[in-house]
Amino acid sequence: MVHRKYFGTDGIRGKFGNNPITAEFFIQLGIAAGNVLCKHSTSCIVVIGNDTRESGPILKSALAAGLSCSGISSLLIGTIPTPGVSYLTKFFQAEAGISISASHNPFNDNGVKFFSRSGKKLSKIVENKIEKELLKLSCNQNNLLCKQKYQQTNGIQQYLKFCESTIPNNLNLTGLNIVVDCAHGATYQIAPNLLRKLGANVIAISCKPNGININHECGTTNIFPLRYRVLKEKADLGIAYDGDGDRLIMIDHLGNIVDGDQILYILVRDKIKNKKFHGGVVGTLMSNMGLEIALKRLGVPFLRSHIGDRYILKTLEENGWTIGAENSGHIILLEHSSAGDAIVAGLQILSIIVHNKTTLKNLCKGIQLLPQILINVQLNKQSNPLKSHAVKRVSAVARETLAGNGRILLRKSGTEPLVRIMVEGTEATKVIKLAYHIATIVKSER
């Protein structure tokens, strides 16, 4: 078994300038990925896109240079949402797609997400092969001789056509006032322009990326600026994206947050109403119990996967189902895409609102989320307090306190040096107290 030194739960991620997020490493990564992905091909193409981080162009050039040394041509498609890379990989019939992004992380982080020729995240088996190849390269210095050229190409218009193809041709958003928060990220041009084209009156915020403001106090990681603007403008709703456009959170006209669990419920209920729903639904270990209860009332089977959209996709495919989501806003709609696509998911909700002549708030009737709190505790890279006796003991006591009327989940993040503590239950006060008590013990054991 290959030791996974670089790949986490969603590609490779870290601080720019620190190994492995350096130009030097990305050249090596390009060589290793090229050697694995196009081992038996003489004419291989890889699609590369990036978000708005200032480090993106540097890493993109280094990665393309490394791929070139492996005899691979790259199509550099510029700033585009991660799901756009997934789609364009299939459209251009490329061997792979690579998004240079750290998703919802701060600007000084960056990383890569790999997609296979089918537009799905690379399997762990292939990631392990790239890890193994990287270890070989570290022992044998390569002669960096570029064998293939890489070229710039604009795939944005094609991606826009794809997004539009997922909704009815006659969808007209005229009369809808929508506030859109693009997190100074990859959706900053695409999302507002598309919604305006469909007739909506769009108030765009956090749409002026400067390389260092991506996800800074905006987007899905800080919903309050969007909420404030929706209420100030008396808008019909608000949509927040994360930095690379693969997750969304919404705000209704009264300022209520509508998360991935509620969005999933709205989509499922509408499909049932229109007799277009078959099978079941996949959530994750973080999905709110309120979603599970609401789906049960609809008679919809519900399964929880591990956290991460790759695991949702795996569970969907194993069961022959087509719809799943994380409460953080990753929505997977296999009828449209094998990647979580925030723009596409948002368009589906807007289509439902218009078709039913209703509001986002009304669509949320039928699902009552249980009080849930998530606390992140910062770690150094070596510590793992989850193994400590004190943390195990306090968790066990907390579960006894909830007495079956709630859940506790403690896990190390796969993308950041954090322990995530989630407590959920029927009584808000009890949930908050238990979460902060557990967090205190976790901090003492770091």
From TrEMBL:
Question: Locate the Alpha-D-phosphohexomutase C-terminal domain: which residues?
Answer: 374-436
Q: Which reaction does it catalyse?
A: alpha-D-glucosamine 1-phosphate = D-glucosamine 6-phosphate
Instruction: Tell me where in this chain the PTM Phosphoserine is found.
Output: S103
Q: How is it modified after translation?
A: Activated by phosphorylation.
Q: Where does the source fall among the domains of life?
A: Bacteria
Look up the record and report any one GO term of the cellular component aspect: cytosol
**Top EC class for this record:** isomerase
One Gene Ontology MF term: phosphomannomutase activity
Q: Reply yes or no: does the keyword rRNA-binding apply.
A: no
Binding of Mg(2+) occurs at: S103, D242, D244, D246
UniProtKB keywords: Isomerase, Magnesium, Metal-binding, Phosphoprotein
Listed cofactors: Mg(2+)
The EC number(s) given in the record are: 5.4.2.10
Q: Where is the Alpha-D-phosphohexomutase alpha/beta/alpha domain?
A: 4-136, 158-255, 259-365
| InterPro entries, per database record | A-D-PHexomutase_a/b/a-I, A-D-PHexomutase_a/b/a-I/II/III, A-D-PHexomutase_a/b/a-II, A-D-PHexomutase_a/b/a-III, A-D-PHexomutase_C, A-D-PHexomutase_C_sf, A-D-PHexomutase_CS, Alpha-D-phosphohexomutase_SF
Which family would the database say this protein is a member of?
Answer: Belongs to the phosphohexose mutase family.
* Function statement: Catalyzes the conversion of glucosamine-6-phosphate to glucosamine-1-phosphate.
What is this protein's record name?
A: Phosphoglucosamine mutase
Q: Tell me the name of the encoding gene.
A: glmM
